[in-house]
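Section 4.2 – Deliverable D4.2 (structural model, holo form)

The reporting period included a commitment to supply a predicted holo structure for the target in complex with iron/sulfur cluster. Inputs used:
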Amino acid sequence: METPILLHRISRIDPTCLADYEAEGGFKALRRALMLRPERIVEMVKASGLVGRGGAAFPTGVKWEGAARQPVAPKYVVCNADESEPGTFKDRVLMEGDPFAIVEAMTICGYAIGAEKGYIYVRGEYPLAYTRLAHAVEEARKAGYLGASILGSDFSFDIELRRGAGAYVCGEETALFESIEGKRGQPRQKPPFPTEAGLFGKPTVINNVETFANIPWIVRNGPEWFRSIGPAGAPGPKLFCVSGAVNRPGVYEAPMSITLRELIERAGGVKDGRRIQAVLVGGAAGAFVGPDALDVEMSFEGLRQVGAPLGSGAVMVIDDRADMWEVLLRIARFFAHESCGKCYPCQLGTQRQWEILQRMRQGQGQPGDRARLEDLWATMIDASICGLGQTAGSAIRSGLALMGG
Ligand SMILES: Cc1cc2nc3c(=O)[nH]c(=O)nc-3n(C[C@H](O)[C@H](O)[C@H](O)COP(=O)(O)O)c2cc1C
Ligand code: SF4
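Output (structure tokens):
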């Protein structure tokens, strides 16, 4: 098994102790970054091939470059720590176990794009992650890693924390901005994209916790090192959240060349030696794959070939004892509940999807229900404002297909 990178310090250091973090290489990347020109950092992140780990798989360096080029001040760095995708719990492990790494990475980003202020938007249900991050920010400030003239340079940067209030949609980047701004957390129309007009209408880089966790490693070890890990189209280490009917559910780090079968084996295999009925990849916004797809590579391209997105890296194993109808109904209810109601295709579509599935499940389906669902899915994909509505039918559709429906 490979030596862990992102999980390297987890459970090995005291996450409340700055000296522990420093002893394990902490803040070396920031020191190095401050000796380089900001453009060089952006070039390194671009050359690393790192793509966002929050679900949308957007190239991180391109995002940073977009914000860096804006001739506007102030600019912002935002860490998306809302971790609202069902079945996803990797960011929690990083925030609770290695919080200084997030502070260091955001500070490097601030230097690279010319921002002096960062926000971390933490899932409300993660009180320990919030406490650990708040402590790390305070300690870093005391030690001169945050605040005015960081480490004696002419660069100043500071971080504030915000807590979410339990809405799935607030993980969507523009809804998250609205929430930080004190408004109702609803997505904005895009464009403009955050790099141009993000938080408070200013150029903003928003990245997922795990995306940020890769940054100090790239700055310290270089983009070539990063590219040497995993397949060419999906470089770098990846955290997978394996849950459901496995013997050892948890967060596993692996290059994206790992197959789904190997990942499930790492998680101790299927519980009670049962047969796999389906695996939900990418969370509720993802898709189900069948037992015939176990040899798929867990990369963006590999999963695309079996019709599933890597998404947030969630892998939920459903064994042959589970009632797939119940699983699909839960997902449908989740989307109907979490739709923010800003646009009709999603507000109405998620409700109708849930109703139609309930009556199909009860044997009271009406003629044309299957076609009605297809019509709903097409409309939600085409006309919803944000990814919530666009993906609300994906797991249901793939699940019904596996059930022969
Ligand atoms: C409904 C919805 C929920 C989302 N939830 C999260 C989340 O909890 N965490 C996250 O990092 N990204 C989430 N995203 C993706 C963000 O909008 C955005 O793409 C991400 O923060 C960008 O960071 P990255 O480039 O580092 O992946 C969500 C998107 C949608 C549509
Ligand atoms: S797609 Fe759904 S969650 Fe997104 S803006 Fe429209 S109603 Fe809100």
